[in-house]
Amino acid sequence: MDWMLKELAESVPQTRHVVVLSSDGLRIAQHDTEPDTADRLAAACAGLQSLARSISDVFPGSTRQLKMIVIEVSGGFFYLMAAGAGAYLAVAADEGVDAGLMGRRMRDLVARIGAHLTSPPRSTVDGSAI
């Protein structure tokens, strides 16, 4: 999966980190990102998903499913996008990034490989889902 993440990072100037994570905030893959940084971003995304589900309650008929979050902070942008069953694509980029280009490239990547970016629920010893 690294080459696909590398392609995203190299096609959008000023990309810092690209991480694929499970819905419970565990890192699945990353490109050109230290494991500790990728783990920290993945764990923070679990909280963002929870907030998105709470916010979705204000939209009648919502399925409470996160599609995309964009956060702008001093110094850059953070993107979180649903990428398959139980998987998400997270990207951090510098403040000069072309935000529209980043969104398009992330959507393109998810469309191309979304079926492969899945994280099935883990199960306990007795086979029940966690």
Automatic annotation (TrEMBL):
Keywords: Membrane, Transmembrane, Transmembrane helix. It comes from Streptomyces smaragdinus. The chain crosses the membrane at residues 69-91. It holds the Pfam family Robl_LC7. Residues 2-93 form the Roadblock/LAMTOR2 domain. The keyword Transmembrane helix applies. PANTHER family: SERINE PROTEASE INHIBITOR RV3364C. The keyword Kinase does not apply. This is Serine protease inhibitor. Gene3D superfamilies: Dynein light chain 2a, cytoplasmic (3.30.450.30).
